[in-house]
Structures are given as structure tokens and as C-alpha cells.
Amino acid sequence: MESSDNVYSLYKCRLLRVYSLTDEEKLFLLRFEDSDIAESWSFIPGQFVQVALPGVGEVPISICSSPMRRGFFELCIKKVGKVTSMIHKLQPGDCVGIRGPYGNGFPMDEFEHSDILLIAAGIGMVPLRSVFMYAVDNRWKFGNITVINSARYGDKLLFRKELEAMRDIAEAENIKIIQTVTRDPEWPGRVGRAQEHIKDANTDPKNSCVAVCGPPQAYRSIFEKLIEAGYDPNKIYVTLERRMKCGVGKCGHCIAGSSTFLKYICIDGPVFGYYDIISTPGLI
Amino acid sequence: MRYLKLGSRNIDEFLGRISNYGDLYAPQKISEKFYDYRKVEDISQVEFNYNRTITPAKKYFIPPKHEMFEFDMETGEYTETMGDVKPFVLFGLHACSIVALRILDGVYLNEYPDKYYAARRKAGIIIGISCLPDEYCFCNLRRTDFVDIGFDLFLHELPDGYLIRVGSERGHEIVDENMDIFEEVSNDDIENFKKFEKKRHEMFKYEGSFDNLRYILELTENSPLWDEESEKCLGCGNCTMTCPTCRCYDVQDLPDIDGKHGKRIRFWDSCQFRSHGLVAGGHNFRETKKDRFINRYVCKNAYFYPLGTSYCVGCGNCTYFCPAGIDFLKNLIKIRDVVGEVAHGEQ
Ligand SMILES: Cc1cc2nc3c(=O)[nH]c(=O)nc-3n(C[C@H](O)[C@H](O)[C@H](O)COP(=O)(O)OP(=O)(O)OC[C@H]3O[C@@H](n4cnc5c(N)ncnc54)[C@H](O)[C@@H]3O)c2cc1C
Ligand code: SF4
Ligand code: SF4
Ligand code: FES
Hints:
Shape of chain A: globular
Helix content of chain A: 10-25%
Strand order of the largest sheet of chain A: 10-9-8-7-11-12-15
Strand order of the largest sheet of chain B: 3-2-6-7-8-9-1-10
Radius of gyration of chain A: 18 Å
Low-confidence stretches of chain B: 339-347
Strand content of chain A: 25-35%
Helix content of chain B: 25-40%
CATH superfamily of the largest domain in chain A: Nucleotide-binding domain of ferredoxin-NADP reductase (FNR) module
Number of helices of chain B: 11
Number of strands of chain A: 15
Number of domains of chain B: 2
Low-confidence stretches of chain A: none
Radius of gyration of chain B: 22 Å
Distance between the termini of chain B: 54 Å
Bound molecules: flavin-adenine dinucleotide, iron/sulfur cluster, FE2/S2 (inorganic) cluster
Structural class of chain B: alpha+beta
Mean pLDDT of chain A: 93
Number of domains of chain A: 3
Largest interface: A-B, 42 and 52 residues
Largest sheet of chain A: 7 strands, mixed
Strand content of chain B: 15-25%
Order of helices and strands of chain B: EHEEEEEHHEEEHEHHHHEEHEEHH
Oligomer: heterodimer
CATH architecture of the largest domain in chain A: 3-Layer(aba) Sandwich
CATH topology of the largest domain in chain A: Rossmann fold
């Protein structure tokens, strides 16, 4: 194991469980090999790690589990290219290198004592699952909670079964779970884009924090719907994505924004507030 | 600040003495037109009067290509490879180059300090030298034409030697250990220093400040200038490679032929390359040449808060080395002075 004074040092993690969520996305349960790191490692929902496979490369992946579970964490990875395809071939017992956590994460302290509205489109459910699980693990700190999970097709809804299985506990705990699809004629449930279901949330617009994660092209219309429904723009947060190589503000790939607001998505983000987004050309 | 004088007759001796502190690198004439920092084998090759080098001093702190780790594909372990970082002396940096290194410090030694950079920065002694601007220089508009910190020693040209400012503890040590070659500064030296500064100041082509530029730039992202200028751009990346503050890098894991081991290397990258913003699935955050062209202007003119200057130090390299003849400064002046051709937000 490398000494930790090198920010690029990787820590070995063993895969304990590999589970197919859809035909493209797998969920991985990981554990640090080194017990000291397992003990001390913690993160904030919305943060990400760099996952490395020697000889293949390194990719940024959001942590999708609750930080309440020490030493273990989950990653949901979509197979899209070189590194992610190799990760998909791994079996329980195999190892990967991990460094992080990186990024600002969602301001969970600020979320306390308010209702929480989570709006996810597609792979956007990944970081929001961490927020959701954390809120459920600390139920007494938060008000009502709504999760809107959306995808094109029913079998592409990430964590669909898990969310369905939570129906009873949700009812008992003032949690509303809305799953909707946009293109699936076979789907028996709700249809339409995530923002069309904001009106059915159990959250009080006057006292809510909102976290949105999905393709940035959808953000403007989601903002419109939220503001129309009376949500406070100051309490709307989104996550952004860019190509990343370092995760620590060095390699320059994730730089975005304009000359008055130049930001590193990896360290200044990936979570940004509504006003940052609307006042900065080039962020979305 | 501590001031000393180095008389003309002691200059060679001075170069000899500082090379006792580590390998000496300095600007040298490498061809008819060009200068570059090179290892000094013969002190008569050291160039005191040059305008710019073909590679910036950043190469000594972030090498164009270097190894970060060795890895073992069977055990999955990465082992750090620091390389051979020996003490060295970097002689002859202009003020803008020293500010540029301080900007890189802000990036590389932030809350996530880069060990490779830190080790090289610690190993390097920095000796600055005064300069006279050519038509490409605009460090005065960037307020980087005079430097207060970031060097161990700084030499200011006098008719009969150099006035030396001592800028660090290490600088004091070097001076103390070699007092026999230095003299006290006389009133004439001070007058001559002032004369040099005045002459230098009068040689800058433009006056004023670029502090409002980043706002104007943001407001004119729809100006036709961007279409016209980016059309000419070849996307070669010379502008970023020669920029003393551009420091984008890429990383690759290169397996050895045995298929079991390999090296993780990093190497300079450029936002002018198409691959820079490309992500899986083919989406590109800087899709067109124009996007990439504007990106450099936006990035370089953004404010670097820790120093209170822009990321651009006004060295003129990007213009001087552009094969397409694109003039960075002229474009900025056009943007600043022709305000509001098309307002921000209109398409
Ligand atoms: C903050 C953040 C969080 C992310 N969270 C997740 C997640 O939870 N689950 C998930 O499946 N994906 C996530 N991604 C996207 C994921 O990083 C890319 O899909 C992945 O890098 C693709 O790598 P590849 O080698 O398979 O693809 P290739 O196309 O072969 O990419 C080659 C290299 O380019 C870079 N790269 C390519 N695409 C991206 C990208 N979209 N973002 C950043 N770097 C890229 C990587 O360094 C990669 O190794 C996240 C991206 C970011 C920036
Ligand atoms: S040096 Fe000139 S031609 Fe090359 S990428 Fe830069 S602006 Fe374009
Ligand atoms: S942008 Fe051009 S003028 Fe400014 S520091 Fe870089 S190379 Fe020099
Ligand atoms: S990922 Fe390297 S600077 Fe952000």
C-alpha cells in the first residue's frame, strides 16, 4: 500500500458482490482491504471516487450507497467504454484501485430539517440514491421525502426493484416514490418526464431542498417547473459531469464556466446551485 | 528587501558558484531565431538577453512526460515512481515566468498537493533576471511585470553589472556563502536601476489594465470575432504548450510487453485538441474548433484569486508561436474595445 502523501495513490478494494441492475448497469459492493482505511474512510452523498484497473485506466464514479455504512460502499457502473467494460468483467473477489472521495457533494447539513425532493433522470439516480439512503438512515433529521426516478423504458429504471420493495417502509415514513418512463408503451405505471410529476411530490415547496441529477439539457425545464411550483431557487442543486483525469483540480479536463466563474467540476463541483448555473454561460 | 550588486567582472564567477548548488539550466540560443532553457555545459552559452524561450520553465516542474507509478496487473498494486529529482538551479527567468510558477503553485499545491510537482519545486533554485519587452509582451496589462516573491535571487541589469534582490531564505544563504563576489549597492546603481525601470516601462506597447476584460469577454461570447479567428486556427496546441501557465495533462496506463507490469505516465495535453472534452459515448463538451478556441480565451482571462491576477501573465508566447498568425493580444483588445456588438444571451 502506498503512503497516503501522494494524492494519486490508489487503495485496494475487493469486490464483494456484483449485481446486474439493467443490461448496461451493474452494482458493485466494495470493501477496503486495509483496515485503517476501512475504519477512517468517509464521504458525503454526491461525492465520487476514481476507480482504477492497472493497465486499463481510471474513471470517476459516484458513490451510490449511504455513508452510514463504514468501510463498505457501492458503485453503480454503466458499461460505455474501455475501463467500464473491463470493470463489468470483474467477479466477486477481484480487486480494483480506489482514490477519493472527491468533489463537494450535496450540502447535507443544509438539507436537515427540510423536506427533500430528489429528481433523477437515467443514470442520475446513482448519486441521488446516496442522498436518499442517507436520509432514510437518518430519518429523524429530515421532513417529507419524494424521489422521482425516471428513464426512457421500465427496464432502464435504475434501482427500480429496490425502490418498489421499499413501498411499505415508505408509506410508514412519509416517503413518496415516483417512478416514471417516457417511451415505454408496456410500462404499467406513470409516464412522462420527471418534471411532470413534481406536482405530486409530498414535499412543501416553501420548506424543501431539491437535488436534481440527469442530463444537463433537462435542467432548464426542470428549473422552470420547480420555480412554478414555488420551490426556492436558492435550495435547488444539480450535479454536472465532464471528462476527468485527476479528480483533484490539476489536469484541467473538467474546467467549465466562463471567465468570471471558471470552475473545476471535480473540486468546485460536481454539485452546483441554481444561481451558479443560470449566471454562468458554459456550465450547462 | 536585501539588495546587493554583482559587478560585470564577477558574472562568470557567479554562474560558476551557483552551479555548485545543483545542475544549472539557463536560456541558450539554440538556432538562428530561437532560445530555450537547456542544461549549462559551458557558461559562455548562457544568454542574458532574450525575449522568450520555445518551452516555458514549467517543464522543469511538470515534465512534458513522466512516470507516476509502476503497476503489477496480477496483484493490482500501483507503486509510486518519483524519478530522480536532484537539486537544480534555474537561471534567467523573467518576472512573468516567475508569476507563472506561482500560479502553477496555486493549482498544484492546493488542498490536494501534487507530490511530483512539490518535489521538483523544492529542488529548484529560481534566479530571475530583468528584461525589456518586445512587441508581443503585455505583462504590464496583467500586472505581472514586476515580481515580489517566488524567486531566490533576482538580477536587475545595470550598465556595469546587476542589482540583486534577495527573495528567499535560500537566496540569503547563497549570498552569505559567496559574499566575496558581491558589493554594496551605490547611489549610482540605484539611479541606474531607476533609469532601467523607466526605459522598460516606456517600451511597453500598451498601457492600462485588463481587469475588466473577463466581464467584457463573458458578455461578448457571441461576437463574430470568434468565428473569424477560430476559422484560422489549426488546433495544433502550440499556444498551450508554450504558455507558462497552461498545465493540462493526460494520464495513461502503459502495459509492458510481458503483459504483467506497466507504467502509469502523464503527459502534457491541450484544450485545443478534440479529445480534451470528449467523453464516452461520443459526446464532446467542446465539440467545435470554435468552442475550443473560446475556451482558451475564457480560461486564460479568468481570475486566479489567490494571486489577484488572471491565469494569463501576458508573455506573448501564444501569439509568437502560433503558426496561423493568430494574435491573442490584438483579439483581446478588439473584444475589450468594441463592446456589445451582440449582447450576451442573444443568439
Ligand atoms: C463526477 C462523475 C461521476 C460519475 N459517476 C458515474 C457513475 O456513478 N456511474 C457511471 O456509470 N458513470 C459515471 N460517470 C461517467 C464515467 O466516468 C464514464 O462513463 C467513464 O469515465 C467512461 O470510461 P471508459 O473508459 O469506460 O470510456 P472511454 O470512452 O473508453 O473513456 C476513456 C477515458 O476518458 C475519460 N472519460 C470518458 N468518459 C467520461 C465521462 N463521462 N466522465 C468523465 N471521464 C470520462 C476517462 O478518463 C476514461 O477512462 C461519472 C462521471 C463523472 C465526471
Ligand atoms: S497555436 Fe494558433 S493555430 Fe495552434 S492551436 Fe493555438 S491558436 Fe490554434
Ligand atoms: S495566454 Fe499567451 S500571453 Fe498569456 S501567459 Fe499564456 S502564452 Fe503567455
Ligand atoms: S478532473 Fe482534473 S482538473 Fe478536474
